[in-house]
Write a sequence for this structure.
């Protein structure tokens, strides 16, 4: 008899403990949890097309020139984006896809020959500058050439 009373008491105690951990409040809180996603916010970026501006003001978008790299330096952060970092001759136009919005100083790193000197251009990269082809075209001026 003592054994059966002990067994029934243990069963009731175990049942009480189990039901105390499965309260309605905890279940409802669990139902209200939101799903975790792996989404990072994306930053608007732009496609840049680089060309040159001759000494007489002609816009140049074809040919090979003594250009090491086209550079864009963000004036707020100092971060530099370049098209190619190896020196030498490059053809124009050159492209850079993924430049974040902001104000930049655009320039050219001199190529191998040192036959041409280039100026700089300060421009803002934003939706307002995107042309009908989807690019923001930056023309770097040629200051001198031999």
């Amino acid at each position: 008899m003592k054994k059966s009373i002990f067994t029934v008491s243990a069963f009731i105690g175990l049942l009480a403990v189990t039901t105390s951990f499965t309260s309605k409040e905890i279940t409802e809180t669990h139902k209200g949890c939101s799903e975790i996603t792996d989404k990072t916010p994306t930053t608007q970026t732009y496609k840049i097309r680089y060309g040159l501006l001759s000494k007489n003001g002609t816009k140049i978008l074809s040919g090979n020139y003594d250009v090491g790299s086209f550079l864009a330096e963000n004036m707020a952060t100092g971060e530099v984006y370049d098209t190619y970092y190896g020196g030498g001759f490059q053809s124009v136009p050159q492209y850079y896809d993924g430049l974040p919005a902001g104000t930049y100083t655009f320039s050219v790193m001199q190529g191998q020959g040192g036959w041409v000197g280039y100026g700089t251009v300060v421009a803002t990269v934003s939706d307002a500058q995107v042309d009908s082809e989807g690019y923001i075209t930056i023309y770097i001026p040629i200051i001198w050439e031999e």
The helical segments are 2-20, 24-31.
